[in-house]
Each structure stands twice: as structure tokens, then as C-alpha cells.
Protein 1
Amino acid sequence: MVSRVVLRLALDERAARLRQTLVGRYGAVGLPLLESGAFTLVFTLFVRPRVAPVSYLLFVYVGVLAWRTFARGVSAAAGSLVRAAPVLRQVPLRAAVVPTSAVLAAFLDAGIALPLLAVGVVALRGWPELAALALWLPIALALQIAATLGLGWLVAVGNAFYRDVGLAIGPLLYILMFAAPVVYPTSVVPLPLRPLFLANPMAAAIDAYRAALLGGVPPSLEAVGFASLVALVLLGAGWAALRLCDPRLREVL
Amino acid sequence: MSPAARSTLLQVRALATTLRPPLGLGGGAPGFGLKDISFSVAPGATVLLLGQNGAGKTTLLRLLAGVYRPQGGVISAHGRVGPVIGWTPLFSAELTPREHVRAYGMVAGVALDVDDVIHRAGLDAVAQRPVRLLSAGEQARLALAPGLAVPADLYLLDEGLSLCDPAYRAAAIAFLRRRADEGAAVILAGQDLLCARALCSRGLLLERGRLIADTDLDTAIAVFTAPSAEGDPTRTVVIESVEVQPVIPGAGERIDVRCRVRTGPGAFALLVALKRPGGPGGGAVLFSSRCIFSQEDHGDTRPARTLEVGIPASALPQGRYQIAVAVTDSRGVPLAIREDAAFIPEPQTLRDGPSPLSPLPDSSISLSTSATSVARSWDFDP
């Protein structure tokens, strides 16, 4: 029942957001492509990375799509409780439902871009290896969902009490993007900084996506373990924050 | 449903809560709070929750709806609560009324007939239009209609009716009256006395977070609309407790009523009446008494004082009686009313042993004495 409410709210949130737009749902395809194109232009002209064997555009597109979904989910979750104040102050609906549906809506948006990604992968690199796909895609998805939900729940509660959280989360996520292997591979990160770098679960998730789709270097088991631990801590902390603050946060919305 | 649940749909005891801004914000300003709210609602009751802006009506409704959690006291509700607390649609203004009703049904956990709800709200012509393009009245109808369509035993409504056009308002009131006849209860918060008179028979009067009167509608409205100087501290009067001695009165014995009252400075009268409970039009005052008292100015504090009034209850026939207590100002305007129930046992019981003067079941409490009849029956000349 709760899952149906989450899905309904997510679909309605998307419908409301896309209404009175020109490109509608296809913005979810166009914007990551535009962003990837801009990164490709800048980095191939000035930095000249050596990313083999796929083209840099496809490499960046996978990273941008994963990161944008994460960032969109977290920032949508941040403002979700405040936006849903009218319903939360009338109906004793579980507060956790609201940021969860915001995160789900971000993932539904990303789903629109998947056909283009599939065509790009097959056209530029060929069919991905089934074994790598079957192993790394679920790991990448699990890490990303856990990290997005956990951080989303936390910032949603934080923003309910202090609106600075919602104002800061957008710029912070943009800065964090450069601390994840979105526009560069993990291999260029200096070894002493590697543990700190891998504390970001999205770093391991992006590497896992690339290993699944592009045959890239997969993350090490230690990296996956560390990322899983951080993602689980985020998930637990976010859930606990929502459970503990649920009655109180309705009073400050 | 248990017998207790049948006689009382909602029981509120010593409810207290304080809404505070988050730590570090609000400059340490004291939060708004409700304090020591007690009342009960029986099946079929139609109650107006009355009070000035900021008195705590909406906060109380949210507590009753389970949206806020009380910091003290107990709320026990039997049956399903149907809150319609806002008067604007709950979801994004980009969605259509149809999408709103569908989403409301989902979050309320009820499969609503979307077309039927839209039709009853008179929104067929705008059903596919974004809500932001609807008029204020249409938005109010959209806020009310799904809430009223959810089957409930206790309806909680806040102001929204007054924004709707007369036709919809009349239909909604007729629906709520019908539901009350079927055993549901309605609590309507607001200051729309037109709606209130059409729907409600009982009034709860809130002032600055305290319940100062739980009485019939006419008396509540009379107290609410009585002329008063804004900020006059004497307006806040609380009858904190009423004790009756002896608990089992013998024939011809005087009944002493001891009241603990908290007032601001000024001159007041305490009126105590022994009444027969009755239905609409009943509740005749049998005996009454009064005492005049004054309170000195103690600055910001309002000390409580205990007053005792005797009622000569000679030749009382056996049966049930009520003790009603009111505090009025020097002009006779009621400032606080409390109607505690009492029960006089039959003569055999008196001989057999103690049977305490105990509260009547809430469903049998009559709250029908109007302000006019109170003044006339108590023969109080201001």
C-alpha cells in the first residue's frame, strides 16, 4: 500500500513538473547529453584524457547520467517535505513517503534516457558482456539507490527544520560531482586520496556502471565494500532521522 | 465497537502541546501552545470550535487528526477520523482536480470514485484544468470534496466551508447533518456563524490555547461575540476544577460546590446551577446560587482561588442532575462556562452504601441552556 502511494506521488510529481514545458520528459535525455557534450568539448580540447577503449563522450555520458539522477533525487527530496506541507499537515501520512517519492521520480526521469544510452553503447562499443552486466549493474543500482535515498531522507529532514539545507544542497552537489569519477576515471586519483574518494558511494557506483556497460575497470572489492558501508550508514541515518523527527517536523513545515 | 466506544467517539483529557520554532531560530520566543484541553464528543454530536484567530483551533484539529503528536494528555478516538483541515488543494497546483482526487484517495487509503467526487463538487467543467487556474471557491470545493467523500466517524473541518458558494455549502452541511444522524460526529472550526448555526448544536470556545467554555452553541457564540476590550486580561478566565460535596446528598441537605477559578484583576460573579439534563430545549435550572468576588492585580500572574457556593437542594426527586458553573464579568457577560455532570443515586442506593457522585456518560450530558435562559433562570442582575 505504501509503495502504491509512493508511486502515485512520484508520478504526480513528475506530471506536475513537466506540465507547461516544451520538451517535457525529453529534457531528461537532452540535458545530460548537452552536459556530456560540454564536458567532452572542454576536456578533449584542453585536458586530453586517455580513456580507452570507448569514446570520451560515452564515458562521460554514463557518469553524468548516474550523477544527475543522484543529484536530482537528493535535491528533489530536500525540498519535498516543505512542498508537501499542505498534505502532511492534514493527513497523518508517513513523512518518509514524500522524499521517497521524490527520489523515485528522479529515477523515473533517468529511465527516459536509458534507450539513448543503450543505443550509444551498442553503436560505439558493441554489445556489453553479459557476465559484467549481470554482476556490476545490480551492484551499481543498489549503491546508487541506497546513497540517494539515504542522503535524500537526511537532507529532507534537515531542510524541514533549517531551510539553509535546501539552499546549499544544489551547489554542494555540483562541487561533489568533481569529487566523483564523472569526468575522469578513478585511476587518475592519487593513491593516498583514494580511500577518501571512495567514501563517496557514487564513486563506486559510477565505476560499476562503466564496468557493466563499457567494459571499464571495475571497482575493487574493498571499494565496493567501503561504498556499501557508507551507503548503508546513510540509509540508516536517514531512516532514523525521519522516524525520530516525523511528528515534530510537521510543526515546522 | 465496545459500549464505551459507542457512547464516546472522541475523548480528550488534559491535552497540552507547544509548537516551537527549531533550535536557534525564533530568537527564543515562547512557542504557541494548547494547555489543559479536555472534552469528549459523542456519536451524532455537531460541535463548533470557536475562537479568535490564533486561539489554537487549527492546532487542536491537527492534534485530533493525528498530524501533530501531543506533548501531554490523551486523545482517544474510536472509529475513522476524516480531517479536512486546509482550504486549499493539497497537491501541486499544476495537477488537475481529477488528479488531486485520485492522489487524495491514495494517501487516505480509500478507493474514491473520482468522477463522482468531481461531480458532487461541481467541478466537471474544470476537471481537466490545472488547479492554479481555478477560482478560490473552486479550489476550496476541491479541498473539501475528497475529504468529505472518505467515509469517517469523526469529521474535522477547518474554515473551508465559508469559502464555498451557498449551493455547495448547503449541500455539504446537509451531508454532514445526515452523517451526524447516522452516528458520525462533526467538529467544525472557524468563525462562520452562519455555517455553525446551520450545522452545530454545541460550542467549544478556545482562548489563547485554553478551552474556556464547553456548552451549547448559543452560549458559546454569546461569549465569543460579547463586547470586550482587546488585551483585557480579565477576558481570560479559567474554571480549573469543580468539586461537589457531599458526593451523595441526603434529603434536604445542602450541596456545596467548590470551584477553583483563575482570573485576571477585576470584579466577577460565580454562578452555580443545578440542572436537569435534557434534550434540545431541556436542561431546566432547578436551583442556583451565586457569589461575587474580586481579584486584585498581580501583574502577569493570575493566581487561582477557590470559591465555595452552596445550593439548597431540598426535596430533590431521584434522577440525574447536572452542575453548571459560570464566571461572568461585572456586566453579566459569561467569561467561562463549565458543565460538569452529576448523578444523584436512587434512595435505596443511598441507604445501601456509597455510590459516588460520578460523571454521567458523555452521551447523556445535555448542553442546551442558552445564554438568555441562563441569565433569566439564575436571576442574575448585572
Protein 2
Amino acid sequence: MAVRLIIGAAITLTAFALAGRRVLMLYRLGRSMQPVEPGRADSPGVRLWAVITEVFGQRKLLRWSGPGLAHFAVFWGFVILGATIVEGFGALFDRDFHIPLIGTATWLGFLEDFFICAVLAGLAGFAVIRLRQDPEKAGRTSRFFGSHTTAAWFVLFMIFNVMWTLLLYRGAQINTGNFPFPHGAFASQAAGHVLHGAGKTANDVFETVGVLGSLGVVLSFLVLVVHSKHLHIFLAPFNVAFSRRPRALGPLLPVYSGGQKVDFEDPGEDDKIGRGAIEDFTWKGLLDFATCTECGRCQSQCPAWNTEKPLSPKLLIMSLRDHALAKAPYLLAGSDEAKAALETSAVDVFQEAQRPLVGGADVGGVIDPDVLWSCVTCGACVEQCPVDIEHVDHIVDMRRYQVLIEAEFPREAGTMLRNLEKNGDPWGRGAKARLEWTAGLPFEVRVLGANGEERIPDDVEYLFWVGCAGSLDDNAKKTSRNVAELLHEAGVEFMILGSGETCTGDAARRLGQEFLFHELATQNVETLNAAGAKKVVVTCAHCFNTLANEYPQLGGHYEVVHHTELLARLIKDGRLRPAGEVDVAVTYHDPCYLGRHNRVFDAPRDILGAVPGVKLNEMPRNREKSFCCGAGGARMWMEETIGTRINETRTDEALGTSPDLVTAACPYCIVMLTDGVATRKQQGKADEAVRVADVSEVLLRSVRKPEAADPGSGADPAPGPGAVPAPGAAPDSGAATTP
Amino acid sequence: MAKVLALVDRDARDGSVRRSACALLTLARRLGEPVAVVGGDRPDDDAIKTLARFGATEIWCLADSPAAPAKPATPVTPVTPAVPATPTTPTAPARASDADLLHHLADRLDPAAILIPATYHGQETAARLAVRLDAGIITNAIDVLPGTDGEPVAIQRCLADSYLVESSVVRGVPVITVRPEAAVPEPHQAEPVVHTAAVEPSPIPAPRITATPEPPRDRPPLDRADIVVAGGRGIGSRAAFAVLAEVADELGAAVAGSHTAADLGWVPREACVGLTGKTVHPRLYLACGLSGSVRHRAGMQGAKTVVVIGDDPAAPIFKLADLGVVGDAQTILPALLAEIRARKANDVP
């Protein structure tokens, strides 16, 4: 017994010393980062629930059934088998130890043994997954490409060691009469049965070796974990608890420096704008990096990675983590002298500290500019991440520094920024052009201020925010007209701002030009507040996100609905009656900023479902897993020169459903898919009749009187007066049909 | 009055003073006594006259530099030389660089500022000089003015030219590079004294220009062309685009493509007109087989006259057209080409 105790104590102290040193370093590193923005600990109930569902319930992991179940088994194995560690330590002192009160209960014995088996099954599952997805063979298509696979295999091996040593000493304990559980521990009994033949002495040895081996493996695993990607075992609950709730999508956070919002009217001298070095990240950022388990679920979904671009959210987070850890001694060096001394005493560390955060291979940058600028901010990575890492926020924060401090961004986006600045729209058409889309509508669209009013009159229910694309892009103009006609038909009074609108600033903000966003957004909030806007309807998913989620940051609080939501409600209320048959096969593309970022998945489908004759065939990647069109994250305003095209990849997926009509609910998506379809037509890979249109077009075709509608034809209502068929009913009769 | 050094940029072939040097002297005059610094070969009389006309009070050049080679009696014809001119023979012994000369003069003359044209060579020189002088540097200035205490204040554009930034250097002799096209030279006759300085070449290796190739002059550059012929997806193929290019050549026009045409590889990326490409302001824009999406329009809405050839009269480009031809560009362009050639043939004086 004494030998057991001495060896056990020695192993334990060594492991705790090694692990403790590392944990202390990580803690000090975390403390050296910037403070987080306020609100990271708000609503503790919500945060607790997030930990319960995502950590203990494994909610996000279980979205992928196979790997999810395997992880569920191993996770709960670790929790339940914590009891065996207590039993193991107890056995160092008392061979016949059992946990007080519950320590001999049949259910506990069964539970422990059940999870030993479940973990072993989980490990087998993991091994199969890793062999199937071997990056050596599968290359970039493997979600483990770029992950530390050797370390991962070693971890699996270590867990396996924990399990067999457990079975060894528990089986031996049965044979030596020291096992706490008379019943229930079926696997241990089986092991005892096997070991029985070896005799009493051998089983005594097995027991001692097994106990010490098991503890040794567990403790060396502890040391391994705090030095590896497996830190997630301890960090994931904290990372989930301090994550943005309900998810790090939708609005971007304002620019914070030192935990305070930066005042763009008068920024402080020492304010940090964005992230220009690893130490500019907050401790939550570091927690994100350290929690990454390199599972690659993000990578498997990323539109950039899937079109051969250098960006993988996983590799980005790993690069930041590896850099932070390699630079840590420099960051933790107390004084400037101590930092300078590293130049001779720790050359590697010093050189790591000199690397720019963003830069090409020539300057040894941590993140390549091509990586940074490939992101479409679609949020597929954030959606998937089982430990709630906030990839998009980190990317935009690094862009902010690049744009605002370094003035380094893809040159071709410069014209867009200049146009936003000078003309208030990306294409430089100017405020006057914003009313062009209304020409030829069979009714007058009310414009705020046209009759001298300063505020939206009481009889107007919605302010229709048309947006730059809706006013100026030819396809999106059609959508604006469709929506205006449908609202008119349903008797919904609406008004537009006309030349009083400017860009919401989304494109500037996603590019990292926060200053310009701030300028445009402030102006719009002033306009909207002065007009007394309460309910706003928008057709652009990007405007929608900005108006609904980001303007509250600047004092603009409105009830914002997307046109698909409003139209779906009008159908449900019977104010719109899609009576005419529209005999088309359609597929629907979920815009990222409507779907993933704002959870509007059903409304567009409800509209399509309400139209008689429409056959909706879903693409393989839909709803939460929708694949971006390629235009988000200000990529709309940049050239896509690396890899294959995101929009063509998505177009191929859409064409795979053999549609007559590819529908979407965002002007950016429609531009990108229209381009993709045109390219495929030119290559002879798409039927000439296939078209791309907003969901509202299908509804309008059905709502118009059957004889006025043109079912099945791909023809567009040609613009211009007279070409637009009169709406099915006069405006007042539309109201009269309201129940 | 303090001296202000201005590095003189000269044509690599004939040694004539570039416009930027005159502009830098003009800016230098606002700050103090303009001193022209001429590296490389010694300036000839014409060069000295030019520098005098724009106000140089002193001209400094290298003591060991040979006199400029005698210029041919007639002006050099703008014919591409078969072998690119080499200003220095590769075997010549190492000579003091512009940075060496400026470093020497900065120590000797204690100037108020050093102005350098923001060319590739100038930026290189300025960077080396600032390090050697342990002085602050401002690059790509578009203007330089005296501040309230007479210190030089440089103005830069930033964030895609949407902001102007005023900066001044707080340590050492301000080294400022100025965009060569930014300032307007104003003549101001002076009587310069020509000095020479014996400068040891620095042991730090500096890049040397070994050849300056003549740029191809087949077509006018897109952003300055009077006539632009542009094609889009409707042109149909790369082969058909060649016909469009022939039309452009007959008109002396630049060739451009829509975003799509560039994506399809029919025109180089630099020839893409639109929001993410070039912005053009030609007198005539001949748009063929393109729809005129709002992003293409963003690059050409400054065109004076727009002529459109396209098969879809509902395409938005027709709304911009002064003259629209509805039809397939693939059949109309060859006909147009034949017509232009026929008229040119009949047009013999």
C-alpha cells in the first residue's frame, strides 16, 4: 500500500505542477489581452441554459448524428467516469475504498461500466471517421485538412488507455475482493472473469498496476490537454458561457477599445481601432482561439474553402492561436527591456513577435491578406461551431484595422467606398435616381415630403425602405415594383423616403470601413427618427440586418420586417390571395443575412407553398446550412480571382434541382445567381428558359387575375408604362376582400 | 532662409528634366530656397536652364560624374529602340546613389526639408535616406505647405482618396515624397550656382536601373482614351472579341470589357470597366453585347456619347444610349469593320 501511495502521490504532484504551470501561463496571457465589451456576462440564465444545452446536451454536435453521438458518448463518459477517478485516488489510501453513500449502488456500477463501453464505442467511431476523412488521402475536402492529426490520434490512444486500465484494475479488484460494486458493473465483471484464471497474486499486481496506470494515464492526459488543442475539455463551457447569445451572427459589434465603445466623432489618441496585433484581441478572443478543437466543421461549410480559396475558418483560428502562444513569452515579459532581451535569449519568440498580424508570405504575416479578404461573412462557420467561436467578428475586426489604420484593402473596392461617400450608393448614381423604379406603376407611390409632410402620416402603416439595389439595380428594381404592387393590392399603406435614403452602410461595415458606416448610419437614423418611422419593410437582406440589428446601436429602434415575412403574413391573413396557378418548378436559395443571420427560413417558403402550381425542390444545402452566393462580406464589391467561383458553385447546386425558376429573397443573391445562370447557359450547361427571380415575383404572378397572369411563361413584365398588367383588383377592392 | 532640397527626376534616355522636378522646385519655393539635386550624370545646359526657370538657386551634382553625352542635333524620334537604353554601363565602378548624394547634402547644407518624387526609384531613395538621417518620412504627398511655424506640412490622400490628411515630421529633416502628377509647376526665373560634391558611394548595395523599356503604344490607355469600344457577354466568344478589337484599332480606340468579359478571360482584368474596374470618361463609348448592369454603368456613366449594339432592346444599356442598334453584335461588328475600312479607303486625300 505504501508503494502505491508514494508512486501515486509522486505522479499526481508532478502532473499538477506541470499542468499548473501551463494553466498559470495561459491565465496570465488571458489577463494581458484587452478587456471585453460590456454585456458578456449579462442574462446569466440564458448563459446557463446555453451551457446546459450546448455542453451537457451537446446540441450543436448532435446536428451531425454520427460524430455527434460518438462525442456525446465520450463527453458523458468523462463526466460519469469522474467517479472512477475519485475511486482510483481513494484506492491509493484504502484498497477497499468506495465513494460514501452512493459508492456501492448498483446503478452507479452499471453507469460507470456502461460509459466505459460507450466511450470505447465512441473511440471506434472517431477512428472510423478519421480514417475515412484522412486528409492525406482526401486533401482539402477533408474537414481535418490542416488539423494536428497526429495529436488527435494520440489523444484517442490516451483515452483508450484510460479505459483499458480502468477495466484492468476493476476486474482485478473483483478477483481480490476490493471492488465497490457487488452488482451492475457488467464490463468489470467480464474483465474479472477473464483475469480470474491468473490467480490471486497476479490479480493483486494487476490491481495495483491498473490503479497506478489508470491514474498515471489520466494525469498525463491532463498535462497533455493543457498543452494541446484538447484544452476545449476545460474551456468549452466558459467559451459557450461568455459567447454572444443567441449567436454571434446578425449585427456586428461596434468598435471597442479597452472595453469602451470608440467614439467615432472624436476618437481617443490611444484607442485601438480593430485588431492590428494579437494582443489587440480581447481575452474572449484568446479564449476562442484556445478552445478551438480543430474539428473542421466550419471548414467543411465554408464557401471560401469549398471554392479553393485559402481561407478556412479553422486554419485562421489555429494560426491566431499558434501565434498567440508562440508570442506569449514576449507579451508576458514585464518591461520593454525584458522584451528587448528576448532578441538574444529567445530568438524564436522575438522573431514571432515581429510578425505582422496581417501580411503576405513575403513579410511573414500571421494571416495572409487573401485569407482575410476571402470571407463572405456568411456565418456558416459560426453556425456550425460546437464551442461558439466567433469567427466573423474576428475577421471583421482585423479588416477594420487594415482599412482604417493601414488603408490596405482590395483596391477595386475603393470606387464603391468613394461612391458611398459622395453619392450615398455603391454605384454612384446619386439620390435623384432613387425614384426611377416607381415609373410606370399603375398607382402613385407616396414619397415622404412630396406633399410637404415632415413626418410619416398616421394612415401610413409601413415605411418601405427600398435600398440602393432596390432603387438602382435592374433586377432588384423589379422586386421593388413587385412588392409595391403586392402591398398596394393588399391595401397596405406604405411610403418611401425617395431621395432621402442613403446606403445603410452594410457594405462599408463588412469591409471594415466602420467610420463610413458610422457616418451613413447616423444620417439614416436621423432621417428615420425625424420621420417618426415605426414599422419598416425592406427587400434587401443586408439592409434588413443593418436596420433591424445594427441601428439600435446608434439609437434607431424600429420594427423591421423583410418583405417575405410581411407578404407571408398578408397571405395568412387573407389580404393577398394567390389564386392563379403558376406552373413552375422552383428552388429557393436562403440568403445568409436573411436565413442564418436572422432566422427567417419559413416565410419565403410559406409564400411559395401558398401559390398553386408551384413545385418547390430544395437544394441539398438549405436553411441553416445554406451555401452563400458569394456576395456577402462586401465580396459583392471585390473581384473573385482565386479558386472557382462561389456563385457558380451555388448555381450548379440550384440547377441540380431542375428548376424553371431559381428564387431568392435578396438583391445580392439575385445578382450573383443571375450571373451564374448566364454563365452556365453560355456553356450550354443550363436550359435557356431558366430564370432567377425574387420570391415576390411568383406571388405577384399568382395574385394577378388568372386571365391577366401569364402562367408558366418565363417572360418578364417588360418595364415601362402600359407593359405592366393592371393589378387584379382595384386598390379599394383589395382592401374590401380583407375579412 | 533655409534651403529645401528637391531631387530631380530625369528621363532615363535623354537626360531631360521631368515635369515632376519643376513641380518639386515650385513646392520647395514655398518652404525656403529651392536647391536642385541631380544624381547620376552631370546635367547638360538644357537641364540647367530648365531648373533655373523653375527657381533653383543652387544645383548640386556629383563631382565624379561624367559630363552628359552630346545630344543628337535633332530631337530623338519616339521610336522604340531595338535595345533599351542603359543609363549606366553594368561594368562601371560603383557610383554614389541619389540617397548617398542627398545624405551628404543634408549633412552639409542643413536643409529645412527634402522633397523627392514618389516614383518607384524615389520612394526607394527616400526610405533609405530617412533611415540614414534617422528622420521622419511622409510618402505620396499631393501637396506641401508651410505650417504655422514655417514647418513643412504634407498633405496625403487616404482611404481610397476620400480623406485628406495633413502631417508634419517631428524628428530630423523631413523627407517627403510627392506624387509626380500632383503639383503644378510655376516658372520663377533664378540664377543658379552649380556645385559639385565628392561623395563616396555607400557600401550598402542599392538597386540600379539597368534598362527602361519603352511602353507599348499600340492603343491609347483605357482611362485616357477618347474612344472606348467595350464588349460583354453578348460578344459570344474570344474569337468574336478579336473582331471588336479590330474595330477599336480602326477607330484608334481603347478596348474594354464588362466585368463578365473579364471573368470569361476575353479581356485582361485591367481592361474591365465598371465598379470594380476602371472608370472611363471617353467622348465616344461603343458598347457591344453588354446589358449595362448598374455595376458596369458605374464605370462609364461619364461617357459623352454612348452608342449601343445589342440584341435585347429591353437591356438597361439602351436607356443610356444616344444611338442604339438592335441586333446581334457578332454580325454587326464585322459589318461595321468592313464599312469603316471601306470609308477609310475612299477617304484618301
